[in-house]
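User: Hi! I'm working on a homework problem where we have to compare a predicted structure to a textbook description. Could you give me the structure for the chain below?
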Amino acid sequence: MTFYQASYEASAKDEVLAFFAQVFTELGRVFDPVSKEQDLADISAAYQHSGGEFWNLRGSVDGPVIGTIALRRLGDDCAEVKRFYLLDAWRGKGLGKRLMKTAIAHARDQGFARVRLDTTLKSEAAIRLFEAAGFTRIERYNEDRFAELFFELNLQHWRESANRPSNEE
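Assistant: Happy to help. Predicted structure tokens:
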């Protein structure tokens, strides 16, 4: 099966917000783009600058958004993975791995030496994916009150050819 992954464009804003409303409902969380998820008000400004990016994944060219991942600059040599979500119906199909590979490859291409991320203890499948990608646990690096675990990937040790996503995944 072919999936379509593309960089965010402002014309997709309503679709992306609808995706987040759906995924947050699946997770039993309240979607609040006004106060908690303020970065989604202007995705381009929040992510698509200084080497960052925001990707949408779709099951077909004109289909709805089924997954996202974003990358933003944390410092001179460090990027952070954000907004890494898949709808329930699409989990377990290797799509999370595909999205993560895209973000990591982009970080490396942009010259970042490290990539960080945070998560909760409830995200067991995601934690396994992070560790399989080479992320290791580190001490807290941010003030996100919901984050419980923190990870970092040293891009100098990341094997680019073995981890780049193929176009047919």
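For your comparison, note the following. The chain has a mean pLDDT of 90. The radius of gyration is 15 Å. Good luck with the assignment!
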